[in-house]
Amino acid sequence: MLGFSGASSAGVDKAAMAARAASEGSWSELAVLLALIDALDDGKLYSAALGEVLEESYQVFKYYGGAADKINGDTIETSPAKLAYVLREPLGVCGQIISWNYPFMMLAWKVASALACGNTVVLKPAEQTPLSAMYFGKFIQEADLPPGMVNIIPGPGSEAGKTLAEQTDVDKVAFTGSTNTGRMIMRSAVTDLKNITLEYGGKSPCITHMGIISNQGEVEDIYDEFLYRFAAKARSQKTGDTFTEGNTMGAIQGKKSGARLLASGVWHGSKGYFIEPTVFADTTEDMAIVPEEIFGAMVTISKFKAQEEAIERANDTSYGLAAAIFTGKVDRAHIVARKLQAGMVWINSSQDSHCGIPFGGYKSSDIGRELGKYALDAYTQAKAVHVNIGLRL
Q1: Do 160 and 248 share a domain, yes or no?
Q2: Quick one: pLDDT at residue 286?
Q3: Which SUPFAM superfamilies has this protein been placed in (predicted)?
Q4: Please, are residues 324 and 346 in contact by the beta-carbon 8 Å criterion?
Q5: How far apart are CA 129 and CA 39, in angstroms?
Q6: Do 114 and 92 touch, CB atoms closer than 8 A?
Q7: Looking at the structure, do residues 182 and 152 belong to the same domain, yes or no?
Q8: Selected residue with higher pLDDT from 263 and 69
Q9: Non-local CB neighbours of 266 within 8 Å, separated by 6+ positions
Q10: Of 32, 77, 170, 260, which is the most exposed, with the fewest CB atoms less than 10 Å away?
Q11: Alpha carbon of 328 to those of 214, 219, 273, 331: distances in Å?
């Protein structure tokens, strides 16, 4: 027989007080702490970092926590003499290399989906911003996950990242970062034909229409007014200390080829890496600042006369991550969205995605998808089982 004692009034009081302390103490402050770490390590605004941790990352872990027991196989009807079914099985060891611009959020995207599918993880944070990932390792220990389930390895990409991609015990490599680094990762992973997911990013076009039908479809006449308003908005941005309320930008190529500089992009302040927003107008696709991804608050603006011209110019790039369309003619926006060579298209909004929606691009921007059920496919492999039920041996 098994015996145990019932809780006394004092025991109930003690448990309730412990739960209250956890609710109002360190547990509720974890998001704030992680946001502080990312803001200090990355230079981004504290408010932005808090949103990435408290909203985006939390929702991602919540989504994949609920998805863990919903990864289903399939049965396929063939003939009365055969049973065929498909299993979705883990890939095994997943090497994950994340970028510096969204430190903890990128960790959440990769770790949550990999673990939900039953994989183990070796994560290398960006060498510039490793702190929140290292602190996450403390959570892993406190959660009492089996040893080796999640491993955090800080270090330079030239050694730690390259070795991780080449390691024969690693079954999959998922990478977010620059195109050049991604190509090196891809070459390293090809030694044993690893499963890969690569997100390179790229320049994302934003098409702003007038009424589309008015003025015979020629929308060039809104260009000057748009430039004026956009430049004014850029100049109104407040660049400065990461933790100062009211600032809209925290810490982070040159003027040539004939583009017109509308907003300065000069250094802000005498200390640190603070650069004001930069806006170039009258740009063309042959200028380096147009097709190349620049990690900073820099925008290029050009005008178009007809819808097809806008589509052609938007697609005139080796990248295809995302695009946005702003117009009052939503029916036309759907037509343009289908013709844009991008993995994500926003209509009358931008970057307001959700963890259930796939994230990834076309062409040189991506291989594979992250987020949503599509990431579950990326972190599992299909096994087809054929059963002969028409013949008794």
Answers
A1: no
A2: 78
A3: ALDH-like
A4: yes
A5: 10
A6: no
A7: yes
A8: 69
A9: 275, 276
A10: 77
A11: 11, 13, 39, 9
- C-alpha distances (whole Å) from 314 to each of 147, 179, 318, 333 are 48, 19, 11, 14
* Residue 191 CB-density burial (10 A; 0-12 exposed, 13-18 middle, 19+ buried): exposed
Q: Tell me what the pLDDT averaged over the chain comes to.
A: 85
Predicted model pTM: 0.82
Residue-number span of the structural domain to which 226 is assigned: 206-347
**63 and 177 together in one domain:** yes
Task: Give Cα 383 distance to the centre of its chain.
Answer: 29
Q: Does residue 149 carry a pLDDT above 90?
A: yes
* pLDDT over 70 at 377, yes or no: yes
Task: Look at residue 217 and give its three-state secondary structure.
Answer: helix
Are 318 and 363 a contacting pair, CB within 8 Å?
yes
Q: What Rg value do the Cα atoms of the chain yield, rounded?
A: 25
The mean per-residue pLDDT over the stretch 210-224 comes to 49
Q: How far apart are CA 253 and CA 237, in angstroms?
A: 20
Residues 34 and 38: their CA atoms lie apart, in Å, by 6
Q: Indicate the residue type of 256.
A: K
> How many alpha carbons lie under 13 Å from residue 88 in its C-beta half-sphere?
19
- Give DSSP secondary structure letters for 30-50: HHHHHHHHHHHHH---HHHHH
Q: Which of 361, 257, 381 is nearest to 319 (CA)?
A: 361
Same domain assignment for residues 74 and 188:
yes
Domain count of the chain?
2
Identify the bridge partners of residue 322 per DSSP, sorted by sequence position. 344
In this structure, what CATH number is given to the domain that contains residue 53?
3.40.605.10
- pLDDT value of position 197: 95
| CA distance between the termini of the chain | 49
User: Collapsing DSSP states into helix, strand and coil, what is residue 178?
Assistant: coil
CA atoms of 173 and 151, how far apart (whole Å):
14
